[in-house]
Amino acid sequence: MQIDISCINTNFSNFWGGEWQASWKVDTQNSTLSGSIKINNHYFENGNIQFSTSQNFSDVPLEGADGENIVKAISKTESNY
């Protein structure tokens, strides 16, 4: 199963914007998760500053291959990063 997450958040009146992209693959037979995230932030008041990062993850253990445990594992992994 593949799960894709994307979010774009902008606040032009405060001179910033950001984007989050994540792609996850669930191995239901082995109860593991693998994927990647890409983050891009842009701040442009009195200058132009951009921050971009990405990270790959593999063999993240799942407590179970059901929706609740998959969401919990994705949330924990992304928050820890």
Structure description:
This protein has 81 residues and is an alpha+beta fold. The protein has one domain: F-actin capping protein, beta subunit (Aspartate Aminotransferase, domain 1). Helices cover 17% and strands 58% of the residues. The mean pLDDT is 95.
Give the SSE string. EEEEH
Overall geometry comes to elongated
Structural class: alpha+beta
Number of domains: 1
- Proportion of helical residues: 10-25%
Q: Tally the beta strands.
A: 4
Strand fraction: over 45%
Task: Describe the structure concisely.
This protein is α+β, with helices and mostly antiparallel strands.
Compile the SSE list and pairings.
Layout: E1 2-11, E2 16-27, E3 32-43, E4 49-61, H1 67-80
Please describe the structure with a list of short key phrases separated by commas or semicolons.
alpha+beta; elongated; 4-stranded antiparallel β-sheet; 81 residues; Aspartate Aminotransferase, domain 1
